[in-house]
Design brief:
CATH class of the largest domain: Alpha Beta
Bound molecules: ligand SAJ
Number of domains: 2
Order of helices and strands: HEHEHHEEHEHEEHEHHHHEHEEEHEHEE
Number of strands: 15
CATH topology of the largest domain: Rossmann fold
Distance between the termini: 59 Å
Number of helices: 14
Strand order of the largest sheet: 3-2-1-4-5-6-7-8
Low-confidence stretches: none
Largest sheet: 8 strands, mixed
CATH superfamily of the largest domain: NAD(P)-binding Rossmann-like Domain
Length: 438
Amino acid sequence: MSNKTFKELLEKFEHDRGVVGVLGLGYVGLPLAVAFAKKGIKVVGFEKSSHKSDQVNAGHNYIGDVVDSELKAAVKSHTLVATTDFSRLKECDAVIICVPTPLDKFKKPEMSYIASAGKDIGAYMKKGVFISLESTTYPTTTEEYLLPIIAQESGLNVNEDFWLCYSAERVDPGNHSFKTENTPKVVGGFGEEAQKLAMTLYSKAIPVLHPVSSPRVAEMTKILENTYRLINISLVNELALLSGKMDISIWEVIEAAKTKPYGFQAFYPGPGIGGHCIPLDPFYLEYIAKNYQFDLTMINTAGQIDNLMPHRMTIKITSALNRHKKSVNGSKILFLGVAYKGDIDDPRESPALKIIDEVIKKGGDVVVHDPYISTFKTEEHGEMHSVPLTDDLLKSTDCVVVTTKHTNVDYQRVYEFSKLIVDLRNAFEQNDEKVYKL
Ligand code: SAJ
């Protein structure tokens, strides 16, 4: 560790003098930027969206997990500034990449955001900078995909002029107990110096860090976390469908299994797996496994189960209406909840969107109420609007479908004024002629 540049950079981090660049101010980047800024560390937030950049600079928060007053204070004290001018990356001693890693339409990794980040950083970075990738991706991305892009664009040398690390975000949207600052963070530096820089910098904002021996260990750790959820949620969804045929309440089964004090974690059935992480991330692992002539069969199977869930829910709605001598065609169907999970305002990858499209195609007259979402788009029917949940609306519908369980909905009132309920989220205790449960 004789490198002078390294020592100067480490010194800056130790004394909070390093300027931290956060690339991407979304549900991962903005909380992280505020977490550093509230510790008095200067943060420059980089956004392609001038709208987001302007909102941040005006102190207007757009991420539910960020505390409005903390954002305002960081902007007011000039410890946090947002910009769309990527040439300002030359001001940064550290750059933390928080860009999306979606799938393309063939369910293959969409790496263009990481590639673009690498090119932007390579184009403007100064000598002596620490770079950390936080986006969920397949193991080897940092060393074998991102590193060459940065080295190529900058003409600089890793572990001499810049240092590289992978440290996944662990953001659970809507979780009020665990935030960026109090969630342990896995850190995988590319070499000892990178690890030292990573641990020193991240410790300023996140007290509990878990160092691992390489970026690929850290990458695999994150993708294991999310693959574990995909597999287990798909398992319980499949068991819910079987239980329904066997006159067994899967909800009662799960509550009973939870009495086991070890070796069991409860996952709950639903209409499908939404969000921009769990249904997508594991397919990054499936992709890279093929590079090693290795077929990860579990992920593929879990994905197939999940793909079928929205259609199976449409069948459940059809059967419930049938039992009341009604067809989907011509029935007024109210969907309660379009967010991908309860008490958040994000509809991305929500299974509700797919079910709504199917029901409309079958001739259903669909209305939607989501207390957190006023307008949203479905793939096939464009923009839709959430309607107020009135007693008259409930009385006028032929079927109410609970697709997302928001805690601020009065389900007893829904029960009182509805004729028929398809409860896909165990929002109702009743399980009678009026309530059909998953
Ligand atoms: N879901 C079920 N049953 C369950 C749990 C979830 O049907 O028992 C559904 C949800 O309704 C939702 C989807 O699965 O549609 C994903 O829910 P989630 O909470 O697992 O996923 P995210 O994307 O909101 O957040 C997750 C984080 N969640 C938790 O740890 C609880 C975490 O895995 C990651 O930190 C985060 O994704 C990420 O960014 O990777």
